[in-house]
Specification:
about 130 residues, mainly alpha, 4 helices
């Protein structure tokens, strides 16, 4: 029982940390960069330039921001449900069966956005920064 409680506690801490990072850093960064792209798109469009790349990237980032928001809300709901469970066994099973899946969904959206973002907008070091610099 102690091991199950410890497991659920650690996973909960990881999930809540992930939620905080997404709410405070990743989601605002994606929204800021997509707004920057939209402004550039409008200016280029008014100048009669081809803006197909900007439109595509802006739309993709907007969709990823929506995915992040939905995934973080799903993770928050799962953690809230887990907190209401009566036994350590139920909480540990919820972590394994649902929290991991919700975290993976959220991470995928964040990772996909990272590849599209300008580095000056990204709030944390990128994988390449960590590996090569």
């Amino acid at each position: 029982e102690i091991l199950l409680e410890n497991y659920a506690k650690i996973i909960r801490i990881e999930a809540m940390t992930m939620l905080e990072m997404v709410r405070r850093d990743y989601l605002p960064a994606v929204m800021d960069y997509s707004a920057h792209l939209a402004q550039n798109l409008t200016a280029k469009e008014q100048a009669g330039m081809n803006v197909s790349v900007e439109k595509k990237q802006c739309m993709t980032l907007s969709n990823l921001a929506c995915e992040m928001d939905e995934a973080q809300q799903g993770l928050k709901n799962t953690v809230d449900e887990m907190d209401r469970m009566a036994t350590p066994y139920e909480r540990a099973n919820a972590c394994y069966d649902r929290v991991y899946q919700d975290m993976a969904r959220l991470r995928k959206a964040v990772d996909d956005a990272e590849w599209l973002m300008a580095s000056k907008y990204w709030p944390y070091p990128t994988y390449s920064d960590l590996l090569f610099y």
